[in-house]
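debug: dumping io for the single-chain case to check the tokenizer round-trip. Nothing else runs in this session.
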Amino acid sequence: MTLLQQLLTAIAAGSDPGPFALLRREGADQVEVLTGPVTTVDRLADLPLPAGAPGPRTLALVPYRQIAERGFACVDDGAPLECLAVAGQETVPLAAALALLPDAAIETTGGGFDISDDEYADMVGRVLRDEIGRGEGANFVIHRTYTARLAGGRTPLSAALTALRRLLVGERGAYWTFLVHTGARTLVGASPERHVSVEDGLTMMNPISGTFRHGPDGADRTALLRFLADPKETDELYMVLDEELKMMATVAEHGGQVIGPYLKEMSHLAHTEYLLAGRGSLDVREVLRETMFAPTVTGSPMENACRVIARHERRGRGYYAAVLALLGHDDAGRQTLDAPILIRTVELSPDGQLRVPVGATLVRHSTAAGEVAETHTKAAGVLAALGLRPPAAPRSAGTEAVRLADDPEVRAALAARNDRLARFWLEQRSPGAATRAGLAGRRVLIVDAEDTFTGMLAHQLRALGLSVTLRPWTAPGDADEFALLVAGPGPGDPRGVDDPKMAAMRRLITARLDGGGPLLAVCLGHQLLAGLLGLRLHRRSAPYQGLQREIDLFGAARRVGFYSTFTALADVDELASPYGPVRLARDAADGAVHALRGAGFAGVQFHPESVLSRDGLTVLGDLLADLLAPAPALGGVTGGHT
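debug: decoded output
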């Protein structure tokens, strides 16, 4: 008798067979069966990864509260970090597994969302107004949970097996379709999204965003093309792409290369997605830690997104938005990792309670009604597997529906999205190809103000030939040791007088100006520099979060990406400051200062490192060539600290 048959026989008899997992990976014609004891550990670094034969060694069920390992805020609900140590394993052909899995009716009672549509719409409005509207970030994911209880005498494990079978038959495009039973809980899902994987030294991530809802008759090509042209959906994907590039900047030695975009088609909906790939050498447990958790289920910038989530949700997330993580070794003894995001998943407790958490990504274009509808759509696949929603149009097992992703117009619409993006992140980069004369080997300190865009900035500066050190605003060290100080980006109101971060960054910038050392300020750093130079700071009525614009940058047209709610304003092109004359590149319509330059310092409101800044590397190279040149940085602009 196979492992799967043993498990199913025990469950049919009403007994608990012990911890196990069933999983089908994307495109596989087999189901993997894993069994073994479950233990609980405190930290990701404690996940067991013993040496031994090639293959999976540990399946970890990682809760959202683990984000506290990075020092980020969360509501601690005590959900444990559980590890299944793989003692038994087998693979079963998909058709054989489907023949064995039960398909009896699932009865439930008391179904509904824990937060009503109206309450959720109000929460969306508050986040748009109080968080995005006040410069706390570019996007945030706020969740709600569908709850119900099993009825009719079905055990949770028996119902879970039926739900798994229905997902295997009725869902498509899932990265993992799975059932994990630890004894304390059972999770069943069809997650569309790889969070992170490591194989053969290649680290990959998979930012997915934008949700196209199929109609009652399935996907509609005309409606899909309208969706692909929708600026809200396009910008949403760009923003999560930027955020996951920040993570890749930490775990991959040269950052991530962007591949795509693609259309991910599922039974009830479709998403747009990119793949990111980069070479790295970190322990896979460290890769997991540094990538907690995907911006597609949290927001950006990450650290402040966690604060916003805790502030508005005010309850724990359990395992929603975290990951399953399968750790092992390959044939050469190298570590491997495969970690899908825990979304589109139902959790069943031993007493028959079921929970299906879902969230919507809130951006500056969002509407309350649209985000409410998105949560219903995202829950539909799992709820259909539980008999709580109508199933998608039926299809035979093993067959694929017509793929709109293969339609020439759809492919062209997707490819056109890259025309606006920075080639630096889209193309494979040869070491030294972008090095600028006069910059090679110069030492740079980047001070991070709680936005890991600084990691991407570090990669671009290294590509230009500089030697980069990255430090947090709480411990910047001695900036005088470096040829260049970069005052980095971060969330918050630059006008705040009682904010410790703003005060610390102002002191840092002031000391650099007083000392005369070269200074580059980006986004928040730029705003603080502008304020110290005497410019008025203003909160925009419509945030510039994830916005790409072509601007006049000191006489050159440059296409760049903005992530800001605040801006400096000026009605002149040159300013007399305590540190000498300052040239301003500003918007002719409203006076918003896009950039400034003085003797030995410069600031940019946009993010040259963003994938939205098509001309970002050129902008950085030109600014730094001036700032670090032995001669005065600006012909025609003289003077220093007076």
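debug: round-trip ok. The chain has two domains: 3-394+406-419, 431-627.
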